[in-house]
## 1
Amino acid sequence: MNRTSARAALLLIAALASTSLAACSSQTQNASGGGTSSAGASANGTITVAGSTAMLPLVKDASAAYQDAHKDVKISVSGGGSATGVTQVAAKAIDIGDSDILAVGHPELRDNRVAVVGFAVVTNPSAGVKNLSRKQLQDVFAGNVANWSAVGGADQKVVIVNRPRSSGTRAVFAKTIMGSMPISESGLVQDATGTAVSVVKQTPGAVSYVALSAISNGVTIVAVDGVTPAPDTIASGKYPIWSYEHMYTYGEPQGNVAAFIDFVKNGTDRVQKNKFIAITAMKVTETDR
Amino acid sequence: MIALQARRSRRVERLALFGLRIAAGFVIVAMAALLLYLGFEGTKTFSADRVSLSAFLFSPVFGVDLGQPGSEVFVLGSLAVTFFAIAVGGPFGVAVGIFLAEIAPHRMTSVLKPAIELMVGIPSVVYGWLGLTLLVPLIRTHTSSPSGFGLAAAGIVLSIMILPTVITLSEDAFRSLPAALKEGSLALGATRWQTITRVLLPSASSGIAVALILGIARAIGETLAIQMVIGNATQIPRSLFAPTATLTTEIVTDMPGAAQGSLLEHSLFSMALLLLMMAMVLIVLVRFALRKRR
């Protein structure tokens, strides 16, 4: 009998541990910023960058090149998501916070725009749609369209694949396409861009919105009001789903931090190679949309 | 010589006891710290953000943007997958437990036992991965569910995951019965099946209750494996094959982007607190079941 209760206690502790682990790791994430200096303080030495995973390829690429050119500077780059980047830089835990979305309610942060990112609506090829109007897109993502045939596609059920509430990608899509219409909660939620793409690939009738840089073969890119997402259509303002990539600093960036931000922004070849669009190429601003 | 030895053993004794006390004290401190922290963070939704408790518990709309986070979908989701798991995995696990304790020949037990222990050792991400690559496509092609993600996929994965817990504990419940019960029943001419159902099963009932409750505790706390197959939609599922979310999956899905001090972070902490309280109720139930046995 004692043996049973001892084993019972042990199993219960295991069950509890797995539960509490989920709660605790949000703390770890907040502590993972690492560096301690503010934007101006690190004249030389280490620059710490964290935030948006959509920006990660570009920032990593740039940091490698920058460190090659400046041997005395060490740059540590990590992800964590746009919200993490903003929170961390506001707490002065990192030097630069990467974000796909505007940091609302942080007047102390300096917004340094370094590039533009385009997002595409992608479907599983079985949906049979190549073009949707903005109104149709709103209806699909609001959950008002059950079958692709209602918007000129194949006889296939619609499966919405969403990103989590706090995702920068979701915020941009909601702002540029949905407007005041809420996104349907009946959709699946995938917490990373990569998994969203693979679920769309595998699930007949699935549809999602992802950064252009993350798209691979096996999905159909849907044109919006007849316009396909591409660097030139985004730069000219014809294609609506895009946003600035922000590198937030606490106050005015100085020293190596300022130099690195300029380096990212001005390396237009690198920006294009990573499927982003240079700020200088844009013929429209966010307010024109 | 003898006196010296005695003194040394006394010192070893004192040191060992001190070490044990430290270890026990650390467990208590860690547990208290966890409870306090979760209690502190988890109540901010109600104190700092002024969300009413009833709205938090019973509103199906998780409207963080509107300042009204309702966790009803997640509470129902947690209860639904847990119920599914215990309804399918419970009887199955108890049956295997009976088989192992009463029927299986020794050689078979010696193969089955390590196999069950191995099941405990498989990380939950592996169960989730198998669910995602085998179960979800299977449900997608054979049911009306367009995506395959949903309650059923999560429930089946969980049913398998709680098996080792239920099997091991119900087997123990049968093995700890006095041999005289079984011998007496058989001596009176009862068949093996009659002995199991009429004599052993009622006697082991509280042990089986413990096995089931701990199976439930395991199911309600499971996170990663379910998150991979349940679909994580904030909706009350209309069918077994509709996607939904649980308390644990919601925490892990929205946690990375929850800014410190935001309502989203506070409500996720409140959900964690809710989970902890559910687990506490289960502990009380286990203690109650064990006491009844004595």
## 2
Amino acid sequence: MADTNLYALILALAAAVATGLIGGFALMKRMTLAGDAMSHIALPGLGLAILWNVQPVLGAAAALALGALLIWKIEKRADLATETTIGVIFSASLAIGALITPSEDIIEALFGGAEPVSIITLAIYLLLAAAVIIFVWKERSRLIISLFNRDLATVTGVNISRLNLSYLLAFATTLVLGLRFLGALLVGALIIIPAAISRQFTHTLEKFLAGSAIASALSVAAGFWIAATFGLDTGPTIVSVAAGLFFLSLLKKKA
Amino acid sequence: MPKILTVRDLSVSLENQDVIKNVNFDLEPGESLAVVGPNGSGKTVLLKTLLGLYPYQGTIAWGTKVRLGYVPQKIDADRHLPINLQNLLEAKADIQKLSRKQLDATIEAVGLLPESLKTPIGHLSGGQFQKALIAFALLGDPNVILFDEPTASLDELSEEHVYDLLNDLRKTRGISIILVSHDVSLIPHIANTVLCLNKTAVCYGPPKEVLTQAMFEKLYSPSHKHVHHAHVHHAHDHNLYG
């Protein structure tokens, strides 16, 4: 049991670093609210997987991957802002998810649970986290230039459409990583809040991204410890800690 | 010597509106072509079409071994982005597999100060920002640079610096330039060919020959609605710069 708790913590910390990095770029792309909403796309997938007796995370991953593709397509066709597009899909997903998820499972689907983590699950999640971190590292230059100006990025040789799709898929993977312990309603918070905390402290890109990953990992570690000590639910505790750190960060001046 | 660029019968329609119609021109190595015209005449669209950013009809044939640099019209950089010029230059160098030496040489050529490199891009002054864009375009050793209103938001002193830099680039590196400008008075000093654009090419030739009072009135007159064919005009009575 001690091992599975440790695995759960390692899994959560790996997910935290990935969400911190992806969240840093989400904040710069001004899609943090979209990130929060996008996590809800997982809900119908979770509901269907539970109904069909399949691993819930597989259902969530499939729904998020489909959601990412759909958002990418709609963005290209209608030329709408990412947040508007995701907002429409989010509302529909939440409604459908609430309709099909069995009522006894809905709370865990929305707020996460504390299921034991096996070594195989841990290995898969660590691979997913590594994939997200490698994506950010490899694509950082393309992401940076496209954030500054899309035309300049295209002239420099960046395929904006392909980059957007890759980013949305990395974003979806990050959400899958956090779903297990935060649930569909709270996982978006771990993408928004750590990046927002880090932004209070720094003007430089390197420190901002590192700070976002650190704030995320710190929230997870402290949240796990507080939840275990006081017998609280892990997901809501982690998000409360992150929110607390954010309000504290508002008192700080940028370095 | 082979041409850098050949444009034939170029037409661009955006959202079912003709923005550019049947434009023809060439660019020779080391040539500086200024594109002038009133607001909404299609200057920026022309530049972006040449860069492959808009769909078009007709021919845009770039010569072989052309390396393009692009300085866009004033960008309203997001003041909240924690990205500085160093990040941007390093990102471009990374994508185009350029060496540290090339990066440092560009920074030196444009005369960028270390503090400008470290300042978040949205916090740079107008002059510094324009230099930053030029540095970004120069990185990668382009042999053609497309400038869209490079001095639109600058004071006179900074404007002079930018034009000195353009002339210097042309003379020392033999770079060909396509320049969109609203400031017709400076054109003879920085361009050896002018394309007057108002959806179609209203004039095309050396500045001293085509930028006449008559052409100026024709190009900017409110009554001027459509010109259906490209014309090449020669020296007229009131040459503005003669």
